[in-house]
């Protein structure tokens, strides 16, 4: 049994198991009610069978049929009632479980954003959130509960028949075992691989689609859109072929199952006829009772095979969930940095998990509050990585970074009150311009918003817009030019009024004149704040108080621009290149 995914996975699962304990009463109630539902259904038919044949034999006393009539009514009512209650408790249990699972998953993802970024693509994560938890939900409702209920019924039927005939009970024990255990087992084994394939095809369709939709313009610009469509259709055909095969198997299996169940009913009929009509014809009423009671029970057994197949995809989901980093036991109590907000970097080393390359190698650096520090470096030298470390979004592999005396990683969420970031391509959301700016501080008054707009040099432009601040920004802010987007991003930061601002290549993609204007605005408006300005060229370098080069994970050539211009031929050379003189 060890290579049946469900059993293997149930042992290793640390996502769902805790919930068994937490809600064990509800769980037991759901299962018992499920059993009672089928019990009532069977009992209803049993009594009805008895009643029909008893009535047909013209009973001498009305009481002989009166009690069965009352019982028929009772079971007729209890069956839907139990069913309803069973649905209620089991769905309640499952929904409680999955909502907590979603929360746990979300917390895991959020806590380890960098891990996710490295190991999963966006499509994967969406798949994870959308599919895997749904799978768990369905697994319990469609597989585990019905299976356990069917097992309970199985035991009950065998024991009940045992009161009348031990050998027929033994026969039932074996014959029903085929239906209850063998059919599902064969299904898992035969369709298991197909199901696995279906799931992985589906997942890759998800990922591919996300990826390609994000990059759709590149397909179109390269005039290869048709090719992409063909590619996508091919994957889809593969998926459909697998699904068709499974469907055929399921149809055949359903047919065989029904024939087998029909034979069971026939056998019961023959047994009951022999058992109850032999010596005293008076017991013949029980024949119909036994035969009929088996009819509704088929519902409990027929779905088992289909249900058991789900375990394959469940195993897959649990495996993916298990592969996630476990939740940090306790999040540290957030501490508040104290002014002055100096950055203290000591012996900082960093390498991405599972990567060879040491991106940062024993950096030591102090950035006093109010300094304008330019960090220069080639593409890939680790500038953005350093910025991420400074914000505490990544943890150093070794060494320490503290802001105002507190390690940045333990400042927690509050870090955004201390450090503002403007990235290479500031993102604008599809809402009003006002909302986009207020993102920095949702309590800012209109007056304050206009003030910062003036400071970043956008006041006139916004005033000219027919709808002013209520202008809708289309997705990604394409309506605004690069320079305007950067200024809007600056407006956000100014509203937030953080003591430290990190600019990660804030002027990439702007023409030289706009670049200079934007930089001037940035530096003037951020006066008095610590500015960590990441850049790959020397344009506007004179704004910096200090320039540092980041190369091969080390810091080199530190000093003021004027000092470097005097002492470093390399700096002079780079400056000349940037000024277009070399
Ligand atoms: P650019 O000027 O192009 O923005 P950068 O100096 O900001 O470059 P980083 O983005 O910090 O460079 O990257 C530094 C190195 O770390 C690169 O070699 C990059 O390939 C690697 N790297 C960046 N992000 C990750 C990641 N999430 N996982 C693994 N390696 C990464
Ligand atoms: Mg970068």
TrEMBL record:
* Name of the protein in its database record: Thiol reductant ABC exporter subunit CydC
The lineage's top-level taxon is Bacteria
Pfam family of this protein, just one? Answer: ABC_tran
Task: Tell me how this protein sits in the membrane.
Answer: Multi-pass membrane protein
Q: Where in the cell is it found?
A: Cell membrane
Q: Which residues form a coiled coil?
A: none
Q: The organism's lineage?
A: Bacteria, Bacillati, Bacillota, Bacilli, Lactobacillales
The protein's organism comes out as Streptococcus cuniculi
* NCBIfam families per UniProt: CydC
Q: Which residues form the ABC transporter domain?
A: 343-577
The record's GO CC annotations read: plasma membrane
Q: Does the keyword Membrane apply?
A: yes
Q: Which PANTHER family match?
A: ATP-BINDING CASSETTE SUB-FAMILY B MEMBER 10, MITOCHONDRIAL (PTHR43394:SF1), ATP-DEPENDENT PERMEASE MDL1, MITOCHONDRIAL (PTHR43394)
A Gene Ontology molecular function term for this protein is: ATP binding
Q: Which SUPFAM superfamilies match?
A: ABC transporter transmembrane region, P-loop containing nucleoside triphosphate hydrolases
